[in-house]
Design goal:
The complex is a heterodimer of chains A (322) and B (323). By secondary structure, chain A is of the alpha/beta class. Chain A is 45% helix and 10% strand. In chain A, the strands form two sheets. Chain A has a five-stranded parallel sheet with strand order 1-2-3-7-6, with helices on both faces. Chain B is α/β, with parallel strands linked by helices and 323 residues long. The mean pLDDT of chain B is 97. The chains are: A alpha/beta (322), B alpha/beta (323).
Chain lengths: 322, 323
């Protein structure tokens, strides 16, 4: 089922918000205001947005090291995200997590995770909780093709299949695991084909087509809610940037490959789709939307800069819950 | 008071807490049938042999409002779950700024004496003490087992219960009525005046036997059981040492960077307690080797009541007299 034009414009807004956030995160990382490491989600926006558009607010997701897009798509607050990247007290994790550990349990965002495949079994436990509760909640794992070669992927899909957990496993296959092409490390190009081995549906979708992602996710979520068990959804996509934003890292990807995928820009694709439908998006409306988004990003940076660094005493807080 | 075994005390704790709180779940590769019969297959799950996934799932279920209990069976089986233990369970509350609670009980047997060789005989609790963010209990009696497990299930943090396999059949008094043993509170298992023996898990009954032998020689031994390794009741241990002036630490694990090393440091770095020491601190631990199979070798590698008694006699002989 196609989302309404209004829903599509909201998807566009969220995708562009992710892109502008990531552009700013990259700039401020290079400028020294954001520390450690930043992994850019630019190019893959349609996956997070298409999947999260098919979820309810009570549904839960988990992310990986490239997590900003999933946070925004689930509805996280830009101010608290940016403050976390800036290492400030008002960040989502009070400055203890940074880019790879942003979480908002209040909106069902169970956290970015710095360990490849580390989140997959955790969110499967959220699926177990959902099943025991029996209130129709669904849990979603976002992970890359690299994670699909690690133990937690296999162990979790097997258990979810055996117990018919209300799960959606979303593989963002961007063809590269850090600096290594997946052609070197996998025997078969399609991660979704592995679903047959677990006895669950495996679906391949164009990960740069947000409407196709939404449609496939909505179908899988409906199955999960109906108690019919998990689905493995493989979204073929690509990250425009290198593995991280660190300038000294090698990027072994061929220039032509990068350019070919940039030509398949998921945001441009949705803009053109909306424009081609009479009256659904004008140049002026699109420009105004982008201005609002850029203002929201500016506001988040101002919020982050106004927030103090954590107090030194707080280093000892939260090792344990009281 | 009635007497039940260490293993039975553990099962009673689980059943009572699962009765008390419908948010408790049990995950293990071989399901405890009595629990499944009472609480159903939805809450008491028989899982594949995939400890990494079980451990991760417990974290996710805990973050979603449940109180999972994971039985790894032997500690040796949890090593395939080390990413989930080290990188996730221990750190998740802190690195997310304390925004969600992760109440989880992990159970694992430790120890040796079963002639099952290196991979199935080990007591690596100090590896986990080294991580910030995990509480660790180490019960030595049926009473402590039940009371500590109940506290651990009610605790809002990940707690690992290391349970000595050698104690499984040990019987002891356990009340019928509900009670808990708080985490972080040591127990003086025998009072004495000449030497403090801080004993861990299976070494507690061994130390009590040694204390009997030594009493006949005129040496009064105080046996202190920390019961909880994290948080450690440093003050109770220091108070005992300030009273006796001598310390022997008995642990079935090896000495290197072990719980015994931590206990020795907690005593010696405290100026007031250090000033009371009449002799060097003595550790009675397993030899620092993988546990061998042959009974002759295995029994040689682990410390027992005789080694503890020898350690006590040694600190009584050496060192300075009380002022």
């Amino acid at each position: 089922m196609q989302p309404s034009p209004e829903q599509q414009r909201e998807m566009l807004r969220t995708m562009q918000t992710i892109r502008r956030f990531e552009e700013r995160a990259s700039t401020d990382f290079r400028g020294g205001d954001i520390y450690g490491v930043v992994h850019s989600y630019i190019g893959e926006e349609a996956v997070a947005v298409g999947v999260c558009a098919a979820l309810d607010s009570k549904d839960q997701i988990i992310s990986n090291h490239r997590g900003h897009g999933h946070c925004i798509a689930k509805g996280a607050d830009l101010n608290r995200m940016m403050a976390e990247l800036y290492g400030r007290q008002d960040g989502y994790c009070k400055g203890k997590g940074g880019s790879m550990h942003i979480a908002d349990f209040g909106i069902g965002m169970l956290g970015a995770n710095g360990i490849v495949a580390g989140g997959i079994s955790i969110v499967t436990g959220a699926g177990l909780a959902a099943q025991v509760e029996g209130k129709g909640r669904v849990a979603v794992a976002f992970f890359g093709d690299g994670a699909s070669n690690a133990g937690p992927f296999h162990e979790s899909l097997n258990i979810a299949a055996a117990w018919k957990l209300p799960m959606l496993y979303v593989c963002e296959n961007n063809l590269w695991a850090a600096q290594t092409a997946n052609a070197i490390t996998v025997g078969a190009p399609d991660v979704a084909a592995r679903a047959a081995g677990y006895g669950i549906p495996g679906v391949i979708v164009d990960g740069n087509d947000v409407l196709a992602v939404y449609e496939a996710a909505a179908e899988a979520v409906a199955r999960a809610r109906a108690g019919e068990g998990p689905t493995l959804l493989e979204c073929k996509t690509y990250r425009w940037n290198a593995h991280t934003e660190r300038p000294n890292q090698p990027d072994l990807r061929p220039k032509e490959e990068i350019e070919a995928w940039k030509a398949k820009d998921p945001i441009k694709r949705l803009v053109e789709h909306l424009k081609s439908q009479q009256g659904q998006l004008s140049d002026e409306e699109w420009a105004a939307m982008d201005r609002e988004i850029q203002q929201a990003i500016e506001d988040s940076v101002a919020f982050a800069k106004a927030s103090p660094f954590p107090t030194l005493e707080s280093a000892l807080d939260d090792v344990f819950a009281d | 008071m009635r007497e039940i075994s260490y293993a039975r005390a553990g099962m009673e704790a689980l059943a009572e807490e699962m009765r008390r709180d419908s948010k408790t779940l049990h995950l293990s590769t071989d399901v405890p049938l009595s629990l499944q019969e009472e609480f159903g297959a939805a809450r008491v799950r028989a899982t594949p042999i995939a400890e990494g996934a079980l451990t991760g799932m417990a974290i996710g279920a805990a973050g979603s409002g449940f109180r999972p209990i994971v039985n790894w069976s032997m500690v040796t089986f949890c090593f395939v779950a080390m990413d989930q233990i080290v990188n996730q369970a221990a750190k998740i509350h802190y690195m997310f700024g304390g925004q969600a609670k992760f109440p989880i009980l992990f159970r694992a047997s430790v120890g040796g004496g079963t002639r099952r060789a290196a991979q199935h005989s080990q007591s690596p609790y100090s590896m986990f003490m080294n991580l910030a963010g995990l509480k660790i209990i180490l019960p030595s009696t049926p009473y402590d087992m039940k009371g500590l497990l109940k506290s651990a299930i009610r605790d809002d943090n990940p707690v690992i219960s290391f349970e000595s396999g050698r104690l499984a059949g040990y019987r002891g008094p356990v009340p019928e009525e509900d009670y808990t043993v708080p985490l972080g509170v040591a127990d003086v298992k025998r009072e004495g005046t000449d030497v403090t023996v801080v004993a861990l898990a299976w070494q507690v009954p061994e130390a009590l036997e040694a204390a009997e032998t030594l009493a006949a020689e005129g040496i009064s031994v105080e046996v202190v059981d920390p019961r909880t390794l994290v948080p450690m009741d440093a003050e109770a241990i220091r108070a005992s040492v300030r009273k006796t002036g001598r310390l022997v630490i008995a642990d079935e694990a090896g000495p290197t960077a072990g719980a015994s090393a931590e206990i020795a440091t907690l005593v010696t770095e405290d100026a007031e307690t250090f000033a009371c020491l009449k002799a060097p601190v003595k550790r009675v631990c397993a030899l620092h080797v993988p546990i061998p199979y042959s009974p002759a070798l295995e029994d040689h590698v682990f410390p027992d009541r005789d080694n503890i008694a020898d350690g006590v006699r040694e600190v009584m002989r050496m060192g300075r007299r009380a002022a």
